[in-house]
Automatic annotation (TrEMBL):
InterPro entries: DUF413. It comes from Vibrio breoganii. It comes from the Bacteria. This is Macrodomain Ori protein. Belongs to the MaoP family. The lineage of its organism: Bacteria, Pseudomonadati, Pseudomonadota, Gammaproteobacteria, Vibrionales.
């Protein structure tokens, strides 16, 4: 795991609401990112919500990176920003079929209707 001076979380971090099968199985995170979120997520969540106060310069920089994502320069900061993006934004769903309501009848339908009129 990457060296960081941000303290480990008091407990493992899981987000069962947004990622019910875990971070790695969601397809959005690598195994390394999964481990970073599990071990440091509790601390990062606490810093973000204000439950925890920053204890060192790296934790203060993390709070600055939350306000301006361009300042994120560690894997932990970019992973947390990625977590925020995937957990708090709406997911797009695409369908492969659609039902188009047509007001004009096709030529085939007109011929079929004409054939049954007799």
């Amino acid at each position: 795991m990457a060296e960081t001076l941000i303290r480990l979380g008091e407990k493992r971090f899981y987000d069962d609401k947004a990622f019910p099968r875990g971070f790695a199985k969601s397809g959005n995170f690598t195994i390394l990112e999964d481990e970073l979120l599990m071990y440091y997520g509790d601390t990062l969540s606490g810093l973000e919500t204000g439950r925890l106060e920053p204890m060192n310069q790296e934790e203060k920089h993390f709070l600055k990176a939350l306000k301006d994502p361009k300042k994120a320069n560690t894997k932990l900061e970019t992973t947390w920003l990625k977590y925020i993006k995937h957990s708090r934004t709406r997911k797009c769903f695409y369908t492969f079929n659609s039902k188009k309501i047509s007001t004009n009848h096709s030529a085939f339908e007109q011929e079929l209707a004409y054939a049954y009129e007799d």
